[in-house]
């Protein structure tokens, strides 16, 4: 056992009146809402990378955090890091965590060594997982090393494509072995810096074929979790192919994968794509590809991925409302893809940030559930479209001419009806 | 004949050294480039709305332009407007124009009267078109009237859907009758102001079915032009369903229309969606849906649709480079969806703005054509991906395992190769 | 009495549990907080323009609202409009309203007629104000008419400058006569569309001299209210000189007005300038120019002035926290520079939107007041800077050398201390 | 001599027709324009940091560049780095370079050792500078080390303030000793991450006092170069106090420094602040604080500091037009604060990028000079404001009343005049 979190007790629910900064005021794991515990609704996961790998650097400065396992370039330090990670999971009582291969093992000198190290680390964490924190998803980091600077599966060099195939295969195997419930692909370098040197058609074909192979392999090994793509419009690249949910959906259709792959929607990525988080969630639901969420908060006015902990309850309510409308999570969950501000250098900051984030999500969930229970938003929504219940303009036999004929025969003159937006916003504010 | 442009002679090509503000310095219609005249490459069109309908208002002020046909609310004024329009087309020598139904006829008191007026105006302009300016595309304005405030085909009221069916049918008929080469759908109100009152699934279904009907009707009446969708992310709505090219492509696939409908890509809309214009053009080409362009320039720092005349030659070169890579225009063309700044109140401003815009496009085209003729960008692009010529990782028999096995057998360690972006940018700057 | 709001009763406080959409749940005017009633803390004002002048148009569509006083181009309709306005003020029980000259009187055929009409309307509304709704501020609309298209006081035509002098003088006189507590200048056209035709130096000099004249005139007529400038970065112009609080402050200093003029800070304008609302408020306080606020909410992802009603309680809390830190309002107040979404076409929408907005502000105020009462944020803030209490590096006698000598003598090696941002955010979330 | 640039010959001017990727096509140092050589107009400088310190990392990946002096953590490697730097300066024939203390010396274990190392490196580069590349400006890096995470002069810890005083003193001394022509302060961490933990008033006071000390020290040591502040709105902090030129100007006035300090304006920072580069330059000129420029290009659609090499000639022309209007550079110059894209990993990329950038600036300068020689933009500008030549509305004796009286006596009705924006844009396009 490390002493990194020494003196910090497991976090418990103390209720809204508590002023204990390391207690839950809203997240009460066993509380039942709409027939399910909050634990099962929210399915919280802690991200290994932000908490245990990132050193506090930004483009203008280096490490600010002082953690005993840095620089974590040996297996020994990687194990110390894992020890600390699971200590934190236990303090928070989270049911899940998520990792990139690269987060839990240092890169080896060869493809083989990297794989061996990943397997060794999997052996190391497996017993720790018996403590109750399972793997929500695994993924491979195919963006940090310089070999990926021009892309992973979309690289101009076919050897990089092959390198990726091996890396993903290894990482899927480990995810499967550890009982991971999903496997995520995040295409940080699948895109371009400049169109001038990019063969767009070819790169899209490479990426599509790669994804098909991943899906085939999933079935082959009997992995029953979901394959998830995480959309993001840009950063690190100037343009990323997995721009947003609608773009990913079109891509999936093009490669025949729309029933095989779902999306992991991140708040911050939604914002960077010019959307609200709830938009991306609603679109994922409408298109049948809702999978999981990366919960965080992007500064609306900083044009990069700020990955802050969520702190706005009304926004969380709108997000979980869409999650509930989508039927809630199945294999997915709420992963905190959020990092401390780099000035928050204490161990206690790590805990407090998660406690605050979990509470915000809990508040959002409760408000969303209450709105659903009260039919507060759905009743007016149904009423607004009620005219369509008796219209058959969309039927298979309808044509532009037949519908036009209806309009012309009646010389109809449709009158506008209030959209009542402010009244609906006020209703939401009754719940948050 | 009106005297609105009195004293302004037809614009002619005078060459780069000319200082005549109303002469072409670069656009030489009969000059042959890559085997085709500039006229046939560029296929310029003037937009009726910005030039003859818009009064110079903005959200904080009203009409600044003083045009004899304003307010154009009678058929008499509509005809005066048409007279002036064709006078301007003749001065500019443009081969095409574009219109919304609403631009050329005042709204009638009924659906029928609106249709009758459109037909009357079609009769009125048809002989004028013999002067040489043909119809690039027609479209229906289904966003200005308050009946469309909550959407056109996506309206919660099925009667609005029916109203639209009649309106589009009439407008397609007129477009067909006038020999229009395309029919455009721009979904300015097909989207939402707030998710709170929106049934996303239903609205997408309405819009998809409507588009299917339009395509069926096109075939029925023997219209051989293209049906085009014009993507735009937002404004007037908070979110528009036709967000960008990739989103539209996914939508078309979902409704089985990806081989029936193409896109009309606008520079300003690309910018608002967070893309470069050339990105959207390249994406349209890659996805097989490139149709036509709305040329203008959006202020990168104003978050609304500024619709300025293009004035940056290097940017125009990158755009026409993608147009040429897509095989050039077939039914499409270069429509100036651009408007004067509201302080540019003189008739001469209208002419000068188009002359400048046409010259910028001509400069862009010439630079793009030269880069293609010299293989200046394609040679390095081919070289960059040359490794794939002998790789079969994408073959139908390849699997994640087989490709991984290749990597593992060789313990490959792919080395990065310079992307040479600045060198390519320097090459482009040799041509612009 | 009009019957526009027929059937809508005066809005009263019913408490948080009320589900009455037209009752206050949080705004309890007589409730005392930190020694002052909520009425006196918040000093709510209704904006004449958004509610009674704006017709629901946007750049792509015209009037959606159907109000009996439209188009309000006669004195008779202007009076009907005023009747409705004061009926709404009474329903809401607001202590203030705000207007532009142009809002309450139709433009006359001449400068004189416009002035006469303004005075006539002032006579008309004066008795109505005895009902309890006073004038928070008046202002002149010097941006809508085409004469202002190239600026008001910054116009290239000195006659426009003179026209503005007369207009502002008349409007200040009326504001003074009606007991207005402030006079606002909003420079919607004081800026430029393009630097190419702009004499920046000259325009800044014109604007500075104009403001000096306004201040001199204020003193001459014994107007004891504040002169306020309302910063906004752009829209309608490409660039506005009153970009943000810091820019306005520099401008005021340059013309010797930093002790004469304060700022009216608008949430939406702060957002458009790349700032948070609380930043602008904090900056105004720090620079000693805090005056009043225009409360609304700008969509973070729409690059134009969306002027939505505020609906996010945590954000309102941060704003009122800065208002309280600035000592609260003196002559200023909370003006709702907010407009209905254009689909919200019912009279009830007008009332509900204000009720919701007032409640959000009340929630914000209460949370802010509690944080101050508990010293919840100030205690950690003081602690963070406590080292400065005993440092004299800033004293008048200190020099770069003397301070450097201290550092060098001790070979100091300052160690970072956690900024605790997430912990502070969690504290805020205990209050909202 | 290193062999890093082995095989790359000094770059020479070959004229516009050259296709040599490592030749100047436009920058002809000895060519005289408006009475001055291009060398003396442009005063090019190479930035040490981007070229010799940055390793190609971004927030999602590490080093891509493979340079023999990395990681440059010893004096030996620092000297190797300096050798390579001066080899590159010679190849490019640039008259200037710029550095942070941290760029040329590795951080020492103590304040003293860091100072000693800086002095040792100054001794090392001094003889190299006899080769012709002088120091345009020096600056201290007070943002990368974790001690600065909460600010430099604005730090909550007064010891950090003192540490900065020593650091800046040392760096000013070295800059002075090496004949540097300016000293720059860039406040990357002078700002805040969250208002919640920030004492804005106090931090502004600290920063103002620090700057006063710097100015006093400059005079004391007889440094005759300019003290420059480099505005930037955000990144790395959420908000930086030196937001833009207008903000800095207000700050300087507040601390009595507006005649002592000038600005170093960066294209990318202007963009991030919502301005055009030419706006910031024009504003600096109008406010009398124009000093120097950091030339680069920010991607308009990436919300972070992309620091690309400039590649758009029309934009460069507008920038140098404002430089020429400001009287050209005195102590300032054109520093390339630009970095390679991280995929551009070859030594040749470093040279090619600068050659392209220098050529773009040269094209811009030539176009700007020609517009000035032809009075192409100034003649219409003067004409636009000509009415003011005979107006005395701004005189000291004028009052709001007297100017209003003029307007009212004449019942003037000013008529708008075209702003002719598109015509002016067309004029510019004749020159670029």
UniProtKB/TrEMBL annotation, chains A, B, C, D:
Q: What InterPro entries does its record include?
A: Xyl_isomerase-like_sf, Xylose_isom_bac, Xylose_isomerase
The major lineage groups are: Bacteria, Pseudomonadati, Pseudomonadota, Alphaproteobacteria, Rhodobacterales
- What protein name is recorded for this chain? Xylose isomerase
Q: Its principal location?
A: cytoplasm
Residues holding Mg(2+) 2: 266, 269, 305, 307
| A GO molecular function held by the record | xylose isomerase activity
The cofactors it requires, by name, are: Mg(2+)
Q: What is this enzyme's catalytic activity, as reactions?
A: alpha-D-xylose = alpha-D-xylulofuranose
Q: What is its EC number?
A: 5.3.1.5
The catalytic site is made up of: 100, 103
User: What subunit structure does UniProt give?
Assistant: Homotetramer.
- Cellular location of this protein? Cytoplasm
- Tell me the HAMAP family matching this sequence: Xylose_isom_A
Assigned protein family: Belongs to the xylose isomerase family.
Q: Give the UniProt keywords, A-Z.
A: Carbohydrate metabolism, Cytoplasm, Isomerase, Magnesium, Metal-binding, Xylose metabolism
